[in-house]
Amino acid sequence: MAFSQLNWIIEKAAELLEDKVREGPISERDVEIAFEIFARPRLEQIGKSLGPAREAEAKDYILMKLRERAKQLNAQHWGPEKSST
Q1: Whole-angstrom Cα distance, residue 9 to residue 5?
Q2: How far apart are the first and last CA of the chain?
Q3: Alpha carbons 17 and 56: distance in angstroms, whole number
Q4: Which of 26, 44, 45, 58 could form a disulfide with 30 if both were Cys (CB 3.0 to 4.6 A apart)?
């Protein structure tokens, strides 16, 4: 799987986090919701061409990147004290 596909999924899921951060700091649950709503269905579509191990790696990568983005958004909007998810 090309990183471009994963990065596209990450960017689109991160858009949900960008909307959420305006309401309040992003939590781990918010990251999980963004993954479930946007990333999981798309990962399942492209995951058919992968084996289970590669799909699990892709999921972990997406969640890691969404957590990083949530931390960055929290720091930008709410200050460093709210940057941990």
Answers
A1: 6
A2: 28
A3: 22
A4: 26
Tens of pLDDT, residue by residue over 13-41, are 999 999 999 999 999 999 999 999 999 99
Give CA–CA dist 29/54, Å, rounded: 24
**H/E/C letters for each residue in the chain?**
CCHHHHHHHHHHHHHHHHHHCCCCCCCHHHHHHHHHHHHHHHHHHHHCCCCHHHHHHHHHHHHHHHHHHHHHHHHHHHCHHHCCC
